[in-house]
Structure formats: structure tokens, C-alpha cells
Amino acid sequence: MFNIGPMEFVVLAAVALIVMGPDKLPQLTKDAARMLRTLRDLAQGARTQLNSELGPEFADFDLASLNPRTAIKNALLGEDGVPRPDLTGLNPKEALSRAWHGEPESATKPVSPGAPAASQPAPSAAAEPAPPAGTPYDTDAT
Fold first, then answer.
1. Which of 4, 16, 27, 116 is most exposed by smallest CB count within 10 Å?
2. CA quadruple 51, 53, 56, 62: dihedral positive or negative?
3. Residues with pLDDT less than 70, the chain
């Protein structure tokens, strides 16, 4: 949860012992444990109240699905954790690099597993219009 290793924990305990002193440290740990227990009970009560307020149509609603990391993982991998076939050939680093440098997208499309790969010629640079020089000007807006 806090990503603290064993050596870091020992250093923190030693600093706490030096700063707080051996006479106050047991009471501080009891207070910290009581506060964590109270916060955990408060969070569980809020979760229970939210589920009861939403009603029976949201009985299977999972609050963990609201976590942005979980939502992105499910969007990219799917619910079962297997990468989606339409995203297997994508390389985000190359796509961002091409977009940053203004290069056209490559002609190779991601291929789903088991489908034959079709080779397509790369589009010529003359097919794409050149970007306008200077500030864009909209004639319809004036």
C-alpha cells in the first residue's frame, strides 16, 4: 500500500523512537491504530450506504471498477486480461513519434491473429495535402 521496504521501515521506526522518545511511542502507535480502524469503518459505512442508496438495480456494482487504472486496463485488455485482437499490432511509442514529427501513419494495419496479412503499398507523400503555412484562417468565420 505505501510501498515501504523492510529497511525503510526500520529506519522510520528508529527515527520515530529518537524523535518521540520511548515513553510516548506506545501511545502514538495505539492512537494511529485506532485512527486507521476508524477510517476503515468509515469507508465501509460509506460503501454500504452507497449500495443501499443506489438500490437493487446496482446490487452487482463494483466500486473498484471506478478506479481509472482498472478502467484503462479493462479497455485495453478486456475483462479476461487477454489483449484485444484489434490492439495487438499497435505500438504507442511509434504512433506518438510519428504524430509528433508530422509523419503519415504507416500503411500496415494491425492484423487479428489467424488472419492472412495483406501487404499494402505505402501511400505516396504527394497524396497528402501539405499543411498550410502560417496561421490558419477560416473564411467562413469572418
1. 116
2. negative
3. 1-2, 81, 87-88, 105-135, 142
Q: Which residue has the cell 469572418?
A: 142
Taking the chain, what is the end-to-end CA distance rounded to the nearest angstrom? Answer: 57
The b-or-e profile of 27-39 (16+ CB within 10 A means b, else e) is eeeeeeeeeeeee
Copy the grid coordinates of residue 126. 504527394
Q: Provide the 3-class DSSP secondary structure of residue 104.
A: coil
* Distances in whole angstroms, Cα of residue 70 to Cα of each of 62, 66, 113: 11, 7, 25
Residue 51 CA to residue 59 CA, distance in Å, equals 7
Question: Which residue's C-alpha cell is 456494482?
Answer: 61
Q: Could you tell me the CA-to-CA distances from 101 to 43, 104, 108 in Å, in that order?
A: 48, 9, 18
3-class DSSP state of 53: helix
Residue whose C-alpha is closest to residue 117's, from 140, 98, 94, 89: 89
Q: Counting every residue, how long is the chain?
A: 142
Q: Give this prediction's pTM.
A: 0.40
